[in-house]
Design brief:
Layout: H1 2-32, E1 34-41, E2 52-55, E3 61-63, E4 69-74, E5 79-85, E6 92-97, E7 104-107, H2 138-142, H3 151-155, E8 180-184, E9 187-189, E10 211-217, E11 231-237, E12 245-251, E13 254-263, E14 266-276, H4 278-283, E15 289-306, E16 310-329, E17 332-354, E18 359-376, E19 379-399, E20 402-420, E21 427-445, E22 450-461, E23 466-478, E24 483-494, H5 498-501, E25 510-523, E26 526-543, E27 554-571, E28 578-592, E29 608-618, E30 623-632, E31 636-637, E32 648-649, E33 653-665, E34 668-675, E35 685-688, E36 700-703, E37 710-720
Parallel strand pairs: 1-7, 8-11
Antiparallel strand pairs: 1-4, 2-3, 2-5, 5-6, 8-9, 10-11, 12-13, 12-37, 13-14, 14-15, 15-16, 16-17, 17-18, 18-19, 19-20, 20-21, 21-22, 22-23, 23-24, 24-25, 25-26, 26-27, 27-28, 28-29, 29-30, 30-33, 31-32, 33-34, 34-37, 35-36
Length: about 725
């Protein structure tokens, strides 16, 4: 009995010691835990409820309550990383000893990468999305009734452009067509348009199907782009095609063939086309007498190689065209015969890649060779141009709120021309125009509502021995959840074109200043845009003859201004299966340049321009029908029977175009379009006789389009892996 009692006591003592040890361990462990606490606020010092707060690499953490407060315990010691995150705010990290993470106040900044962040939009057109840039997809190009598959034609339905139907190029905000420069993958295109007879619109050289987006900036654009007084047009080739396919097109004016191949990390897209207007002209006679109707062949290829860090692209395009035509002239009884043979080669190579998490690299090079052989009234002109553009650019991302771009580039152009006229000795003239440039630009986001882009561009012209400095700045403020206000200012320089430089190089770079105020309202599927601008030109070229020639006297004393308002509305949601946009531009401009005796509204400028574009998908017909209406007020011309210069105006321009795309099957499309379906007799201007008649009146003839209407029929067939895509992107 005594022995059992002793054993029980020993057991009791052992249990007491064990309990005491456990109590000591628990107490020690409790004292080893650290309490982490604090409050999470936004920039307005308001509490954020539901924010996640935790120690990186552990399960220790919690969420904030309605007062923004958090509290949790941890056994971690020494320096740790505290993570604080919440949707639509930037994640915050605090590296500190856990003993200091008590009663701390943390302020989260709004995430400027969110979709509702302000965008820098002044001078850059946004059509139907909330991106920083304006993108017209190939679908918009080929389904706009008046565009006839030309990206330039589609852009002419946007505000800021001027209707010059007999030219076909982009005239932007009181600027001439040569003031708009085109870039492919960031590299300059020196000869972007195909040649055409006088009073006949030209077309862009390049197929829209090789590009995944078109950015159109009507002013105030980035310091990265130079030698453009009015506008830049950026064409970006497709990075990585999603499938192999073949595109076949048979048209009333020719044929097209395209193919895309993909292997490993490489892909190749090729596109070829042949245009011959002889059959069309045989059916629809125009006002010209064709000895050889327009004929042209072209080919394009894009090779891509994808790496882990970036992508290489090689783009090349070649085209050749010719025609021989006799055009009516009031001063030449037999008409003016104009014959042309043109060939053009363009090569573009670029690399875009990531050096690391914060550095991005871009390098690119383009080469252009253009040759023209012209015969006009027995005079022969032969010219060729060799041009190079090289660019190197770095982008440094400091954080989500600050990004810095800087780079250098070099333009080199060599132009030569031979002129042979039977009664005089042959003439030869030309020039070398080399320009070196450097640029830097910073994107600063102060908050989701306020952003700034500021840059500087320096250019040195070897031809003029002149250095120019171009500041650029753009500011954007978000006024509401869907609306924003933007301001932009920029200085821009551009050397005169080859028609002037081939005769005289003792000039200056032409320049202009842009001032832009923009308001944009962007909701789901809808966008409203209003923009006011003012442009001030200096150093424009003047000469004292009827047109540029070798014995003209040239100077850089010309000037001009342009001011106006652009309005745009696009809606693809309100009415089922209908997408439409409205564009209106008001332009007030005068120029004192070329051979102008006084400042006047130039004959390429319309005061009022209106475009209406609509597209309607009809399920029962498996069709998309579209219309495009253009109105432009009259343009100036000089009537020698009255006093003054550019003293009269033509009647207004009106044109209604319609199209119909019918899906024979998912990948076979039949396409019809008619330009100016109402057959309106538009007049582009007047040509007057050089001498008056017996009554001392100068007779005239109207300058009308070669054809009042243009009919187009095409069959397009896509053969693809998926079997569902077509050339109109399923409409």
């Amino acid at each position: 009995m005594h022995f059992c009692t002793v054993k029980q006591n020993k057991r009791m003592n052992s249990m007491k010691r064990l309990v005491s040890l456990l109590i000591i361990l628990i107490t020690i462990n409790a004292f080893a835990q650290t309490t982490i606490s604090g409050k999470v606020l936004d920039a307005k010092r308001q509490p954020i409820e539901g924010a996640n707060v935790y120690l990186e690499g552990t399960y220790d953490g919690g969420t904030t309550n309605e007062k923004g407060e958090f509290l949790f315990k941890t056994e971690e010691t020494q320096t740790q990383t505290l993570i604080i995150s919440f949707v639509s705010f930037e994640t915050e990290q605090i590296h500190s000893d856990v003993s200091t993470l008590q009663n701390i106040n943390i302020t989260l900044r709004e995430d400027i990468n969110a979709l509702d962040t302000v965008v820098l939009s002044a001078g850059t057109f946004a059509a139907g999305d909330n991106s920083k840039i304006s993108v017209l997809k190939p679908l918009d190009v080929v389904t706009t009734a008046s565009a006839l598959g030309d990206f330039v034609g589609a852009l002419q339905t946007l505000p800021g452009t001027t209707t010059v139907s007999e030219d076909g190029r982009l005239f932007v905000r009181g600027g001439e067509a040569e003031e708009t420069q085109i870039f492919i993958d960031g590299i300059r295109v020196f000869t972007p348009y195909t040649p055409s007879p006088n009073n006949s619109p030209t077309r862009g050289r390049y197929s829209p199907f090789l590009f995944d987006g078109i950015t159109f900036s009507t002013g105030g654009y980035s310091a990265e782009y130079g030698q453009a007084l009015s506008s830049v047009l950026l064409l970006n080739t497709i990075d990585v095609p999603d499938q192999e396919k073949t595109d076949i097109g048979i048209m009333s004016v020719g044929a097209t063939l395209g193919n895309t191949q993909i292997w490993d990390k490489n892909s190749l897209s090729v596109n070829a086309s042949y245009i011959n207007l002889a059959p069309y002209n045989a059916i629809f006679n125009d006002r010209n007498e064709w000895k050889k109707p327009y004929e042209g062949a072209s080919g394009e290829a894009v090779f891509r190689h994808k790496t882990d860090q970036g992508i290489y692209k090689l783009y090349s395009a070649f085209d050749a065209s010719r025609f021989d035509v006799i055009q009516e002239d009031i001063n030449v009884t037999e008409g003016v015969r104009f014959k042309l043979n043109n060939s053009n080669l363009y090569f573009n190579g670029s690399y875009t890649g990531e050096l690391n998490d914060v550095w991005q690299l871009f390098g690119g090079l383009s080469y252009t060779y253009a040759n023209n052989n012209i015969d006009i009234i027995g005079n022969t002109i032969s010219n060729n141009e060799n041009s190079i553009h090289a660019k190197f650019k770095l982008k440094r991302r400091f954080n989500s709120r600050l990004k810095l771009n800087f780079g250098v580039e070099y333009f080199a152009t060599q132009f030569n021309e031979d002129f042979v006229e039977p009664t005089i000795a042959p003439l030869n003239y030309g020039f070398n125009n080399n320009i070196a440039a450097a640029f830097t630009e910073a994107d600063v986001f102060f908050s989701k509502k306020l952003a700034l882009k500021a840059g500087l561009r320096l250019e040195y012209s070897e031809l003029f021995k002149e250095t120019t400095v171009s500041p650029r700045v753009s500011l954007a403020y978000k006024t509401s959840a869907k609306g924003q206000l933007s301001l932009a200012y920029g200085g821009f320089y551009q050397n005169p074109n080859s028609d002037i430089l081939k005769f005289n190089q003792a000039l200056k770079a032409q320049n202009t200043q842009h001032y832009i105020l923009n308001y944009q309202l962007n909701t789901d599927g809808k966008i409203f845009r209003a923009e006011a601008y003012y442009k001030d030109y200096n150093n424009l070229v003047k000469y004292d003859t009827s047109f540029t020639q070798f014995d003209s006297n040239y100077n850089s004393n010309g000037s001009a201004f342009a001011k106006g308002i652009d309005l745009f509305w696009r809606d693809s949601k309100s009415i089922k299966n209908i997408d439409y946009w409205l564009s209106y531009s008001y332009l007030d401009t005068e120029r004192d340049y070329r051979n102008y005796p006084v400042a006047a509204q130039p004959n390429f400028a319309n005061t009022h321009n209106l475009s209406v574009v609509g597209k309607y998908w009809i399920d029962q017909w498996k069709s998309q029908v579209g219309l495009s209406y253009t109105y432009a007020s009259g343009r100036t011309y000089t009537d020698p029977n009255q006093t003054g210069f550019l003293n009269a105006k033509t009647k207004s321009f009106n044109s209604l175009s319609v199209n119909w795309a019918y899906l024979l099957s998912q990948q076979k499309i039949l396409y019809f379009s008619v330009n100016n379906v109402l057959g309106i007799k538009n007049i582009n201007g007047y040509q007057y006789a050089n001498t008056p008649d017996l009554n001392n009146n100068f007779s005239r003839r109207a300058l009308r389009p070669a054809l009042d209407q243009f009919f187009f029929v095409g069959f397009f067939w896509t053969i693809s892996e998926k079997g569902t895509d077509n050339q109109l992107d399923n409409l």
